[in-house]
Every structure is written in C-alpha cells, then in structure tokens.
Design brief:
heterodimer, A: 64 residues, alpha+beta, Alpha-Beta Plaits, two-stranded antiparallel ribbon, 2 helices, 4 strands, B: 410 residues, Cytochrome p450, three-stranded antiparallel beta sheet, 45% helix, globular, binds protoporphyrin IX containing FE, binds iron/sulfur cluster, metal ion binding (chain A), metal-binding (chain A)
Chain lengths: 64, 410
C-alpha cells in the first residue's frame, strides 16, 4: 500500500500527521508530505485509511 | 440576549437573522427545515443583503471560489466594508490574512504559518496543562462552579497573551474588545462603541511600540522582524495581526472548550468513557468540533452573479456556516448524533481551502488539554439545574455561562 498527499490540495489541517506520524510529516508551514516515498509498512494500513478518512480537504489518496 | 436592530425573524427562508437569539437557540432545526423545504440557500435583506448556504457541498464550493467570493468582510455587519470610513480594500482587507484574497493572501499567511506549525505549538503543551490546573486550583473546594467564567474563557486568553508578549493580567480587557467586534454586529453603532474601538487600537499601538524599543522572544517581536514582499511590516500591519490573533483565537477556542464540557456535563456515558479512557479524548474533541463547530465565516460577492439558481448582487454577504456543513447528512453518517469515537470525520470546523484556521494546531492543543485536565480533576460533574446555561449569538457560538455542580473531584 502507498499513500500520497496532493500538495495542491493540502491546507495543513494536520490531521494526517496527528493520526499517523509513522506515515506523514509536516514542513515548517504545516503542510504535509508522505514519509518513505509513501510506502506503508505492513500493519499500518488501517492508520493510512484513518488519515484518509479524516482529511477535510480530500488531499490524501491510497494505492492498494 | 436581545433582538438585533432588525427585530424578530418572520420567515427563515427569506428573512433569516444569523445573529438573532432565535437562530442561536434553534439552528439545527432551522437548517433541516430549510433544506427539507427545498431551500438550500436562504436569503435575508438584513445587513444589506445576506445569503445562507446550508449544505457541505455549497459551503465547500464557496470557500474554494475566491474568484467570485471575497474575504474582505469575514464578519457580517450592518455596514458593508465599502461603507466604512477606515476600510482597507480587497485583496488586502483590514486584517490580513483573514480579510485577504489571492494573490496577497498567501504571502500574508505565509508570514504567520511558521509560528503556528505543529512542531512550534506542541511544546506549549506543558504550559497549557499548568494554566488549566491553576484555574481549577483557583476554584478552591467549591461544589458549584462556572466552567465558562472560571475556566474555558481564560485558557485561550492566557495562552495567546503569553505567546504574543502582552500582559497576561489584561485578559478581561482583550475579552471585552473581542466581544465588541464579534457580538455587537446587530447592535447600534454608538459613540461608546467607537470609543472602545479607539482604546483597543491605542492599547495595541502602545505595546507594539514597546516591542520596537525592547525586542523579546515572542510573537510581536517575531512579527516586527518579519518581511512581506521584501519589506518589514508597518506598525499598523503588526497591530492588525495582533488584533486578528486575539479576535480569531479567543472567543472561538473559549467556545470550543465550553461546548465540549457542556456535552460531557449532559452526557454521562460519554463522560465516563473519557474518564476511563483518556486516550479517546483526541477523537472526541474532533467530534465536538464537528457537532458544535464554533465558527461561521462570511464572504462578500464580488460582482452580480447567478449561483445555483439565486441572483447574488455585488457586495451581498454570504455566510459560510461550517457548523451547518458539519451537520449535513450527505457528508456525515448520523450527522446529528454525537459519536465520540467517530472514525471518519472530515469536519470543516476550521474552515476549508486557503483560509484554513491558522491557529488550528493551537486550538486543538488547548481543547485537548482543557478537557483532559478538567476530567482528571472533576471526574463527575453535571449542569446545575437551578441555573441557566447561556449561549452566545452571532458568528461564534459557544456557552457563555456553564453553571456546573462538581459531584466528584480527584
Ligand atoms: C476552536 C477554535 C477555533 C476555531 C473553530 C477556528 C475557526 C476558524 C475558521 C473556520 C477559519 C476560516 C476563516 C475563513 O474561511 O474565512 C479560521 C481562520 C483563522 N483562524 Fe481560527 N479558529 C479557532 C482558533 C484559532 C486560534 C487559537 C487562532 C490563533 C491564535 C486562530 C487564528 C486564525 C487565523 C489567523 C485565521 C485566518 C487564516 C487565513 O485567513 O488564512 N484561530 N479559524
Ligand atoms: S490532513 Fe489533509 S489537509 Fe491536513 S495536513 Fe494532512 S493532507 Fe494536508
């Protein structure tokens, strides 16, 4: 599984980083990006889905 | 709570008043009735012409459409910005970035973002914990407390005053001024009100100038050093930003904390679950933000236009009721139910699009710590049946008094 943050949609609500810091990080302006090229380590799939389900800007996508 | 200058509402579809006590008391039913009667965008001639879109989809669309909707007037008033003597025109507006449109907005916002990023805000946690505990210590061993007047209203004031570098003991003054700006929309523009606005400006200019002479490690000094388009900010811009942070950060967070505590005072099952499982608090706070979203913003129509079948006129106000978007059952399952462990929660309490609340990381920290500490110290509390809970009217909604009985303390 891979996650991706679309930087043109992300407004820095910071939900992804709060819910899944293993998968996302934020820059100095609070905008998010995926860690590890978006590769989701085994066992963290639910966290990836949780982040997607809580992004108000629909900026996160998942490739199964 | 008194009526606005426009008097009681006669019809919610054609004569609504978002600042009226009737709206504050019954907004959920008003939204549902309007939507069910086939009116997703209500109108009123009040405030010189105002629209109220009610679905998540419409609110989302307008928030994103900065080409047609300007942020120059984020708070609806009796006069349009163009009718005010001291108004600053779009795309800058009187309080950048909240009043700004592209292309100025991004730059004005960029300036402040680093001061409110998660990694700068998280370290304030200990300080907020201390403030919350101190406020509870100050209540002594009283069984009857007011969680709004003795707790929630003080937290954001004490935090932002410390961050800005303003005297913490001036909290009552800030709150008075914030109230003047936000709650007074439907009231008459009296000499006394104008006088208070002047005092607010003078107070800030004094403190900003003091920071010019005596720089320190705080937000006002940070702003004085910051640059926009390659130039230092003017004193007026810095004072404007400070006003914005006070206005945007105090009433809103006070409301968010208060609504959360009110929910827990009136829902003992949820309260017990959080006392027993404090690690559920962050998700619960998101649900309180969704269900009791404190903030409704506004936009101004840039030019006459048709929008989903209605004719909007240049300079009409358009409200962005994020609280209504958050209760839209097309976007949220069981939208009117408060589900403290809701898994999917794309709520819009902090807005949508480019104006996303700049203070959202701080607001979330304050709400989480405030709930956490309150439950630790008062594992059982309820609303005092002999007293009244009162709610604010206008674009920021939250409880202004919360008379509680403390049934257990730890
Ligand atoms: C629970 C508390 C809060 C809520 C619900 C809230 C809500 C909002 C909303 C909905 C907006 C969007 C405005 C728009 O679309 O026009 C906004 C913007 C803003 N908020 Fe907050 N806010 C809260 C706390 C704070 C705090 C603590 C601060 C700072 C100390 C703050 C500073 C700002 C600023 C500066 C903006 C303007 C951002 C921009 O225009 O780019 N807010 N807030
Ligand atoms: S939750 Fe969405 S908008 Fe917020 S930081 Fe993550 S990707 Fe960006």
């Amino acid at each position: 599984m891979r996650v991706h943050v679309d930087p043109s949609k992300c407004q820095g609500h910071n939900r992804c980083y709060a819910l899944a810091p293993e998968l996302f990080d934020v820059d100095d302006y609070g905008n998010a990006f995926e860690l590890n090229d978006g590769v989701v380590p085994a066992g963290l799939e639910d966290k990836a889905r949780l982040a997607l389900a809580n992004c108000p800007e629909f900026a996160i996508s998942i490739e199964e | 709570m008194s009526e606005t200058v426009y008097g009681p509402v006669t019809d919610w579809a054609t004569d609504f008043d978002h600042a009226s006590p009737a709206y504050a008391a019954d907004m959920h039913k008003i939204w549902d009735d309007l939507k069910n009667s086939g009116c997703p965008i209500a109108h009123t001639d009040r405030y010189g012409g105002t629209w109220l879109p009610l679905t998540h989809e419409l609110v989302h669309e307008i928030a994103y459409d900065t080409a047609h909707f300007s942020s120059q007037g984020p708070v609806v008033g009796q006069l349009k910005p163009s009718e005010l003597e001291d108004s600053v025109p779009a795309p800058i507006g009187g309080a950048p970035p909240i009043s700004s449109d592209p292309p100025v907005h991004a730059e004005a916002r960029r300036l402040l973002l680093p001061a409110f990023s998660p990694k700068v805000i998280d370290p304030w946690r200990e300080e907020v914990i201390m403030i919350c505990n101190q406020l509870i210590d100050d209540m002594g061993d009283a069984d009857h407390i007011d969680a709004a007047l003795q707790y929630s209203q003080h937290i954001p004031v004490m935090v932002i005053a410390r961050m800005l570098g303003l005297p913490v003991e001036d909290g009552d003054k800030f709150r008075g001024w914030v109230n003047l700006v936000l709650s007074g929309v439907g009231e008459e523009r009296t000499e006394a009100r104008m006088q208070q606005f002047m005092e607010f400006n003078e107070y800030l200019e004094f403190h900003v100038n003091d920071h010019v002479e005596n720089p320190r490690d705080d937000l006002i000094s940070f702003l004085l050093n910051a640059e926009i388009f390659g130039e230092k900010l003017s004193i007026r811009h810095v004072a404007g930003s400070v006003i914005l942070l006070l206005i945007a950060g105090i009433d809103t967070t006070w409301s968010g904390i208060g609504s959360s505590l009110w929910h827990l005072a009136t829902n003992s099952v949820d309260r017990r679950r959080l006392v027993e499982n404090p690690d559920m608090i962050p998700a619960a706070v998101e649900e309180f933000l969704r269900a009791y979203a404190p903030v409704t913003m506004a936009r101004l129509v840039k030019e006459d236009m048709e929008f989903h079948g209605v004719q909007m006129k240049k300079e009409d106000w358009v409200l962005l009721p994020f609280p209504a978007a958050n209760r839209d059952d097309k976007q949220f399952a069981n939208a009117h139910e408060v589900v403290i462990d809701r898994e999917e929660n794309r709520h819009a309490a902090f807005g949508l699009g480019i104006h996303r609340c700049l203070g959202s990381n701080l607001a979330r920290l304050e709400m989480n710590v405030a709930v956490e500490v309150f439950l630790q110290r008062f594992p059982d509390f309820s609303v005092d049946a002999n007293e009244m809970v009162t709610w604010s009217t206008g674009q920021v909604r939250g409880p202004r008094t919360l008379p509680f009985v403390v049934n257990a303390r730890a």
